[in-house]
Amino acid sequence: MHKLEALNRALFLQINAQPHSPQWQIDITLAIANDLIYLIPAVLALMWLFGDRRWREAAVRGCCLSFLALGFNQLIGLVWVHPRPFMIGLGHTFVEHAPDSSFPSDHATLFASIALTMFLAGLVRAGLLITLAGAAVALARVRIGVHFPLDMVGAVGVSCLAYALLAPLWARAGDALMRLIIALYRRILSWPIRRGWLVP
User: Fold this and answer.
1) In the chain, how many domains are there?
2) pTM of the full predicted structure?
3) Staple partner for 82: which of 12, 93, 103, 165, CB 3.0–4.6 Å?
4) Residue 200: pLDDT band by 50, 70, 90 thresholds?
5) 151 within a domain of the structure (yes/no)
6) Domain assignment of residue 92, given as a range
């Protein structure tokens, strides 16, 4: 465990930005670390509004998986608090962040959950897009000093575990949930659907 933590810290120091790093690099890194996450709701909304049944099911399953995985993160944080780098005076931090547990990363968990869902639904291009964006966010959040590299590895592990637990539940109740959500969607957005602006 001590060797793993030593490796974690060493990798962090290799990636973490320095105070003398060019400001434009810091600004881009901060934008990726903080704002690229909005790609997730945008992609899921487009999948639902303009996709067929397969795309919609992947969007809903991805949402369910994300909520489950993020819930696991909260439980892990309650049971085992792993301090963030700035909480132990390690490296340099370029953004304010709450001094809570760093492991696993919520940002990386969200991207991993959606990417895993896309790949297993056969939506490879969407999965690659989310994976590349997630990798950029993971690297950026380590670079600005709020996460360790192994926080990102842990996020992928949590997402895989959550998927394994969700799969049998989805097999039983997924179709019923989809019918309910589609019925609500068609009722609430009936006006633009009738005019052909949205896929029914």
Assistant:
1) 1
2) 0.94
3) 103
4) confident
5) yes
6) 23-189
